[in-house]
Structures are given as C-alpha cells and as structure tokens.
Amino acid sequence: MNGPYDYIEVDNTNRVRISSPKDRGILNNTYKIIFKLITSSPIHVGSGRSKLKDSKIIMEFSRSKKTLVIPGASLKGAISTNYLVLSGSGNKTSELFGTTSESAYISKVFVDDLKILNKKLGLRIVGKAFPPRKKMRGVKYYPQGTITKSKYLLEVLKENTELFGKIIGYQLSELEVGGLIASLGVIFNNKRLEKWNFKMGYGKWYLLGGSKKTFGLVRLKQIAVYKLNVGFSNKYEKIDKLKWTKFVSKFYNMERENLYETVLDVAKRYFIKQEDIQNEQY
After folding, report:
1. Which of the residues 2, 15, 93, 170 has an alpha carbon 20 to 30 A from that of 138?
2. Can you tell me the distance from the alpha carbon of 151 to that of 149, in angstroms, rounded to the nearest whole number?
C-alpha cells in the first residue's frame, strides 16, 4: 500500500484503440437499466465553485439552474472506472465506453443525470486527496480504514438520500450488460447477488473526534433491466431477474486478462460492505 491509497492492477488505465469496434450505427441489443441508489454516507459531487461563510471556504455541490443535481457524467465516470477495475481490461472498457483518441468512437452507454429524490443537504469536513508519488499500472483507490488528517468543508448530500437513475446502452453483449450491473456495486457471490457500496464523487476516509468517518459511498437499492424489441413492437420489454442475474454471473466468471486476481477477488477488495459502515455515527 502506498500511503493512504492503494492500487488495483489493470492492463491499461487509458482508453485504447480497438481494432474492430462494433458498428455504432446499428440499433441492436439495446438495453435500459433503471435503478435507485441510496447514499450510505455523505456524498459530494463538486461544482468547481466555492463560497465564503463565517470566514470558512465551502466547496459547493453541483447545481443546474440552482437545483442540486448529480450529472450523468459523474456516475458514468464512476461506473466506467468500476468496470475497468473489475474487468482489468482497457480494451473491454474502451469498447463499451468509447475513446477520445485519434481514432475516436462514441460510447455505447448513455447515462442520465441522477435525480435527487429527497434532498438532504449538509456540511461535512473531508480529508485532503493525496497525489500518487509515482505512476502505477493500476487504478488508485482509498481502502477502508485509510485516514487523512488535512480537512476542509464540502456541501454534501447526507446519508439515506435516494437517487434515481437510468442507463441506456446499445450493441451490448450479455457480458457487457452483466458488467454494467456489476459496476453498480453488485457482487455475484455463492450463487446470489449482493449489493455493496461503491464510491462516487469526492470520497475519502479521515479521523475526527476519535471516530473514523466515510464519504462518497452509494449502493444499489432497486433495479430493473429492459431490452428493446426492435422491429416488432419497438418497445422495451422487462427482463426477468433470473435472466439478467445470469449476465452478472457470466461477467464474474470472466478471467481478468493477464492478471492473477479473479473478478470476485477484486470486487471484494474494491467495493465496501454495508455492514462495515452501518454503525458509524455522522
């Protein structure tokens, strides 16, 4: 471990050129994932703006026309990172989420802004981020129990705030659909699904008043998966849970390319169990 952060090895952290990407102009295998997330700890998605209150600088939460919002790009960034971590493959991640290289092609996945259902805004003190001292071939993350001492104020959505979201993807394989669901913190373990926490926005651990605190954790509360029936009804038809569970199972049975850990091993190290944080006091 490199100080307060660690790495999970992947074959490439950059989006890479795909030799034979799927045709983006054909509307086949289109899926819609509708879900509800709930914050397990205070979460901050920054606007890049700050304000002064009582001689203290407060980093503001993201807003659109004065309304609190979590941009779809923020969630997409989180799940694309999760997908890269779990799969270990820059190629697979680039094929699904696109690339901005010279041979750029668009993402197959489109993510709506998250709708905040019960707005619970507050202020929290968070720890300072630590830039890596050296580059590693992996994704940087802050393991459970990491403590940072430098602190400043953020506007946050409090715990138990519900967020409604939608993801639409086309030209998707069953494995990719399973990977998208897994990237929402879903673990396939002992032939059953478990909903673990993943990080979104600004999230660190730090010490305050002798107690360890957690920021930036969300978990899946509800999910429904649909597939577009092209050419017959042109309507989305709901997929049975047993069927899409098999997609997730297929993803977890996939080998991480040239890497020694299994997808399940990585998921258990990277995602965070609800039981590990539910007794914390905020």
Report:
1. 170
2. 6
